[in-house]
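dumping this here so i dont lose it
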């Protein structure tokens, strides 16, 4: 299976933006197969309890992922876990799972809408 996602810049085209939770850390990423991506994450040492909170269809998953990451940082106060962890975030303001998934969905829906409008113009 050709897996897209799992590495910055490798996930282009249609797919999903997802949100995962592991303890008080959240991952906002993209993949053509979020369930398979979850299996990959769970296989990592210390990530066995990771859970998939939501997945949202995206027209351009890598750009929609960036929009979702920006939105959770700006609207929810998420902070990057470390400088080299591009899509794992801390949740210092203790936002609820419901609020987090709502913000991810809003970002992806807004990005999809922009992409649809662009296509109509071309």
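and the seq i came up w/
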């Amino acid at each position: 299976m050709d897996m897209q996602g799992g590495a910055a810049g490798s996930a282009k085209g249609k797919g999903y933006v997802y949100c995962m939770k592991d303890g008080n850390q959240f991952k906002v990423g993209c993949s053509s197969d979020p369930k398979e991506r979850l299996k990959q994450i769970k296989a990592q040492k210390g990530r066995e309890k990771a859970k998939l909170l939501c997945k949202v269809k995206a027209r351009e998953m890598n750009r929609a992922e960036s929009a979702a990451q920006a939105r959770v940082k700006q609207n929810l106060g998420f902070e990057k876990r470390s400088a080299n962890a591009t899509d794992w975030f801390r949740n210092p303001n203790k936002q609820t799972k419901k609020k987090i998934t709502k913000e991810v969905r809003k970002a992806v829906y807004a990005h999809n809408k922009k992409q649809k409008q662009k296509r109509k113009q071309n």
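Residues 1-9 have pLDDT under 50 and may be disordered.
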